[in-house]
Write a structure and sequence with these properties.
This protein has 382 residues and is an alpha/beta fold. It folds into 3 domains: 184 residues, Hect, E3 ligase catalytic domain fold, CATH 3.90.1750; 65 residues, no CATH class; 110 residues, Hect, E3 ligase catalytic domain (Hect, E3 ligase catalytic fold, 2-Layer Sandwich). Strands 5-6-8-7 form a 4-stranded mixed β-sheet. A two-stranded parallel ribbon has the order 1-2. The protein has a two-stranded antiparallel ribbon with strand order 3-4. Helix 7 runs antiparallel to helix 10. It is elongated and about 85 Å long.
Amino acid sequence: MRSLMDEKPTLPAADLFSSLRASLPEGNQTTFFNICRARVWDGALRDLRRKSFSASNPISVKFTDSIGQTEGAIDVGGPRREFFSLVLNHIQHSSLFEGPPTSRVLSLGGQAMENDHYYYAGQLMAMSLVHGGPSPTFLSTTLYEAIAYGCERSTAGLDDVGDLDIKSKLMKIQSATSLEELQGAADEAEDFLSLAGLITNINSVDKKNQLVSSAVRFYVLDRTRSAFERLLSGLETLGVLNTIKENPVACRKAFIHSEESELISERLKTIFHVDFSEKGSNKRSTEEVVLSQFFDYLIDVEEGETKCTLRDILVFTSGASSIPITSFTEMPEITFLHSADNYPTANTCSIVLRLPTVHKEYEAFKEAMDFAILNSQSFGTS
């Protein structure tokens, strides 16, 4: 099988998906999503099924549970990023997939197939990548290789089997050391092995690995083929599937969890432009102290010394749960509140984080940051 490592990256993934975004047609048509956060998947499906829907149009999201708040009537980025963050989180943890949270393989549900949910999941993944949302970095290597190279060139391992009972039975077959032990383990798994079309009457211990390999392949890849084909059809949206197939190594980071995809304090610091007051002024001196407090706060968050997470801070500031692979279209900015404001505020559309300057002690600053971030569930102006 051709491995991911056999390919040489062409352009970086950020450039590839930025190119897809740049190729979107310009026009006055807008695709509208009317979303309630508590039912984000249902709302997304309604709007995707609308006759006028077009994935290539500019997207405007209105959260109906925020009507009357200060997010404004026009979506210039924040609501859209939050929508993709919420809907991809739903897809990641839905019954469409199984396995560890950051290494998911397809499951197979009759109702999901009937309602074409696998197609819509793939479509939303593609749209998020092109329209500046987070990356769906929760697929297993096995599933990604099947997408990039085809099921025939992908192999699955026991770690990909999400059904713990079946996995346990296959592990027992694999660990058998005698023919008698192997036959007993195969008999225990007879129902599943028969469903997979595999012979359960074994005459050699040497055949156990092939039996397990065939059984795993059936469970992970063959059994879910119909769901996989619909997922692929969804990923064709906006040219994403073709980009994956032409650039499998470069696109890998958009779908597979890695240390690089982890949000760390140093990375979060580097995305911000700091809007300082004039150098030498009293305001500037205060701002430099506050910025040092904020950077220490990020370290404390990363080390688990606060109630917040780095993801909470990014959502508070931008509406996104992770930094888009294409980065933000606007440079995130830090400004300062030279007033009596105790708490930070943010505008997720223009991606501006405003830090309070009233706290002389770091602990008071940290408590104010935690309180504001954890008690702001909305976007726009937090």
